[in-house]
Amino acid sequence: MKQQIHYREIDGRSPGFFALLGLIGALILVGLGAAYYMEHNGHYVTGMTNQIVWGTPHVFAVFLIVAASGALNVASISSVFGKTAYKPLARLSGLLAIALLVGGLAVLVLDLGRPDRLIVAMTKYNFKSIFAWNIFLYTGFMVIVAVYMWFLMERKMNRFSKVGGLTAFIWRIMLTTGTGSIFGFLVARQAYDAALMAPMFVIMSFSYGLAIYLLVLMAAYKWTNRPLGDAIIFRLKNLLGVFIASVLYFVVVYHLTNLYMTEHHSYERFVLMDGGVYTQLFWVVQILLGSLLPLLLLYLPATGKSRTWIGISAALVIIGGMAQIYIIIIGGQAFPLVLFPGMEVSSSFYDGVVSHYAPSLPEILLGIGGTAIAAIIVLLGVRVLRFLPVSLEDKYTDPHHETTGTAAQASEATA
Amino acid sequence: MTENSNTDKSRRQFLGSAAVAAGMAVAPGVILHQTASAKPADEAISSKVRWGMLIDTAKCANGCDACVSACDEEHNLGGGRSETDAQWIRKVELRDKQTGHSLTMPLLCQHCEFPPCVDVCPTGASFRREDGIVLVDKHICIGCRYCMMACPYKARSFIHEDLHDQKPYSPRGKGTVESCTFCVHRVDRDETPACVEACDAEGHNAMIFGDMNNPDSEISRQLASYSSSQIRGDLGLNTGVRYRGI
Description:
Oligomer: heterodimer
CATH architecture of chain A: Up-down Bundle
Strand content of chain B: 15-25%
Structural class of chain A: mainly alpha
Helix content of chain B: 25-40%
CATH class of the largest domain in chain B: Alpha Beta
């Protein structure tokens, strides 16, 4: 018999808790203020133009939405794939998934030209639009994960947790497929129009979601002084390494395919060689800092056993992921549409030239505000409900730990 | 779209019967006069018509942007910020990298039969009228700009700031997306779009507007007699705007 896991709300009375709450609240207010400023004046006050129609808010929104489905993986590994070591981690995984999705959607909605017409988006549908599908995929995800959490947290419903977990897992694959297809189905642009986008976004979600999960887990246990054993951290960081490598694989396949086709050479030259900021973001941030360095840090014996370095690696994955989404969304728009192959094109509407874009402060603040919304949901969630196990010492998470003196630990755990 | 046309239809039917009732009340002693028109106002838009445009790049003059100015004036476009100002039609200069041959031509919404902007619009604000004109319903558009990502011709503009002095026949709104309407307000009055009129006024006659479904129309006769092409014809969108000489 495994150890009994005890969950408890966090205390939430320390000055640290209120300081964090205050900081996150302030960031949300600033984000909302930025959104109001942009809506009131119109989008001309942002870095966006008629050429770059999706800017920094979309980078944040897509990153958060992709990470949301990935954050659920930890729960899926426990419920769907039966890995008991992950079971104590499942609740936080579900909470984080919902929180990140809400944060991402908030950014997306607040960046609409007419956010006041959200009700229109909820009542009028064009079912050929992937955006319309996504409205159902996103709201459905929140409901399904919430019910799944209920199955996990309510003892009487525990027996349904496998079904709940499986449903949530299938749904999250569909959700990220939908997010990737927003770009994959765009036939017009050189950077998109690839079926690979959907699976690549799924694997990106694994990586980003787990990186965020690791950081939140380590922070939560450090700040609440709850014990967190090495066994679970090492499991998660090894898994993160596998995910980073998988994302790299997809990136390589994507670019190799494009490099083979003459039609895409100019786009590849743009991203890989002379795209200025996009090229730098690709090689330096996405590949070097966001992929190779964390891989090295996670697997080198000297750093792979250090929580600090594991935390840094997870942070690097997040930074690299933001860069990757930035290149996909903004780089993909900056590169000119090819309307007349083989022709030099120019016009008053910036045809044939790489479009200029620089993130504006309000856009960045809105993105941070959305991230803060995700953070406040997690913070209040763990404050009022029992998401976090009292202890994640190795004996609760390491299946091989049981062999040594189970009885003694069981009595200790329930004491 | 069907819902739209149904609503249109029932409204038109209602208006129609109301008009008949009113007509019967005042008819005695009044001569009812109807001007010659392709489509009476009470008739629903029908797919029997496919509005289209043929642009002859050989006739399109270098340095002339009469079509662009006419459009800006007709719909009160423009402003002082080139990167965010709406442009429904633009002059594009092309030069063949291999041969050096260059030409100029106007580029506008291509009014596709299978418009990607309509496919991706989540609310159905982007729609295609039965007669082939692709429009945005400014009341339903939420400003998500997905259509702008999807349009292969970059034909759409997002309204980045407050608008002033709008034309009543050309409703626009901050925070929504818009594009060339083929001057639908004129077309419904049996007139030609402002750009075509301006091109003719300059004596270039590079643009022909008409019903591509009517074999006797000027545009159909020209399309049948001479070769023409679609921009990004490989996408199979069956555009309503055709070009000669590219």
